[in-house]
Amino acid sequence: MQTLLFERDVQRIADDITGPITYQPDIVPPSLAATWFETLREQGRWHESSRMMYERLVGVPRLHGHYSVSDPALPEVLRHVLAFVRQHVDAPFNSIGLNFYRDEHDSVAPHNDKLHELVPHQPIALLSLGATRTMIIRRKKPPHLKTELELEAGSLLLMGWNAQLHYDHGIPKLPYPVGPRISVAFRVRPTRNAEGW
After folding, report:
1. Which residue segments constitute the domains of the chain, with CATH numbers given?
2. Residue 129 or residue 145, greater confidence
3. Is residue 169 within 8 Å of residue 157, measured between CB atoms?
4. What DSSP letter does each residue of the chain carry, written as one string?
5. Computed over its alpha carbons, how large is the radius of gyration of the chain?
6. What is the pLDDT of residues 89-102, one digit of tens each?
7. Minimal CA–CA distance to 186: which of 54, 49, 74?
8. How far does CA 188 lie from the centroid of its chain?
9. Which residues of 64-87 are buried (b: 16+ CB within 10 A; e: fewer)?
10. Among 126, 162, 167, 176, CA closest to 147
């Protein structure tokens, strides 16, 4: 598993056997994080989608977008973000996923990434921009230990490939107003799947 190149202020959420999962706040200067957020909000290729749940079609409670790193249409801002993340994480990222949580009503249910859509033993890096949102990280096996992690603007969450076997993660709805947030997720997909994810 590739790791953070710089370990300053890194919080370890899970150990190397079941994770690792690490969190590093303030990796991006506030003014730059704000600029990236505004640019992605305006220029991102945002989509709405639906999915079957409880035998009915429901809207996914957030906007999303996907880019291949090799896509000639990859926005310039994402090229800068990718270069920045690569200074901190040694991994051959080839896929960028975006999620736009517009307000407190947007969320993502607890889940783990599908391992067949990832290159084994490569990490997932998640850069947060905009408003702070809580991520719930929960161990799958008893005693189901749970961490509530505040993902701040300019922070980086790094999850090991094996963490998907042992933990679920999600962003719950909130009972109070909160501003918009964009997550930028970097993954290493098998070459045949890098396009369109």
Report:
1. 11-193 (2.60.120.590)
2. 129
3. no
4. ---BS--TTPEEEE-TTT--EEEETT-S-HHHHHHHHHHHHHHS--B--EEEETTEEEE-SSEEEEEETT-TT--HHHHHHHHHHHTTB-S---EEEEEEE-STT--EEEE---GGGS-TT--EEEEEEES-EEEEEEESSTT--EEEEEE-TT-EEEE-TTHHHHEEEEE---SS----EEEEEEE---GGGSTT-
5. 16
6. 999 999 999 999 99
7. 74
8. 13
9. bbbbbbebeeebebbeebbeebee
10. 167
CB 70 within 8 A of CB 94: yes
Task: Give 91-131 as a 3 state SS string.
Answer: CCCCEEEEEEECCCCCCEEEECCCHHHCCCCCCEEEEEEEC
**Tens of pLDDT, residues 164-194:** 999 999 999 999 999 999 999 999 999 865 5
Q: Are strands 124-130 and 181-187 parallel, antiparallel or unpaired?
A: antiparallel
Contact 157, 22 (CB under 8 A): yes
Q: Which of 169, 155, 168 is nearest to 125 (CA)?
A: 155
pLDDT of residue 191: 82
- Paired with 56 in beta bridges are 53
Q: Residue 97 in contact with residue 44, Cβ under 8 Å?
A: no
b/e sequence 44-59, b meaning 16+ C-beta within 10 Å: bebeeeeeeeeeeeee
